Amino acid sequence: MTYTIPTEKKKTIDWVNSLSLSEDVYNDIYKVIYPAQSITLPAPKSVDPHRWVAACHYDEAFVVCIPEGRLMTSHCYVVTPDNIRLSDLELTDPGYEKMTLPEPEYYRETVASLFWGWNFPNPVSHGTHTVFGHWFFDILPRIHLLENSGIAIDKYVLPKLTYAFQFESLKLLGIPLRKVIQVDKTDFHLTAKKLIVAAVPLIIGKCPPWASYYIAEKMKYSRKIHKQKGYERIYITREDASARYVVNEDEVLRYLKTKGFRKIVLTPMSTEEKIEVFSSAKVIVAPFGSGSINVAFCEPGASLIELSPVSFVDNYFWKLCCHAGMDYYELLCKVEPKAHVGADNIIVDLGKLDHYMRLNGIIDAN
Known about the structure:
alpha/beta, eight-stranded mixed sheet, elongated
């Protein structure tokens, strides 16, 4: 028998409310871990105009338990027993809408889906889970919601794991690989006796505070961290990236080295090494990119000067800095345009960089 992907969608809360459940059963099916909240975060300490508002809203963070729930396609669409897709737990891909799937593999266990986003397993696994930033703040924090639900999980569903940071972070968070079901085909189809799915941080409000606190607590504060001398001032290079690198990086580095900065290439470093380096840093200069996710491991009072392309706006790292008690500076940079949105290479104005560092006391004003 083959199956097609259902077209009807509902938000999770709307589907639960449509079931006319008793209060006890309702609370077993839908658990609110963090209520909705609105907060105001400190504005960037920048000379450039602020490009976003300080007020941030976050929807409630929930966990839903779906008896006989299904996961469909490698994107892991969440489907209820009455054949409804839960729209706030998926990232839709129109290319998959007419796909036919085989009979689902049945698990007589409690299975939790940790994944959200795109997942293209062949010929080489790539997708949302392979992006360092999304992995750490749109996927891993869902473990925290599951833990706080009190539901015992037998298996976890994730895309095929290929990168060292994926294995290292799961180990640090206490998820053994023997309990992980890895999705390695596009026509993935699973039914579980109980399917457990947590809210997606990006959907309920980009970078909610609880997600940042969880990552920092589990990976840094609950462990013994050895701070490293010589990493008080660091520059994060994207020299090994295919896009959004600093065009005039040689000039930038010559300037920064006179101010005691050290160049860091993050790609070959282990997760534990990154935690130690960022825990040791007092001032970080970095072009916009996933590497700045590691500011979650900085000490309160540290500073990030983000070299931001003027053609692309994203407040992710400002939020992370605020949650970590750091000072955040956005330095807007001209770009070398590329076809793909957000991929423009960055051109840094050295005079402006020097002005930022002096004005904000990172180096002494003369």
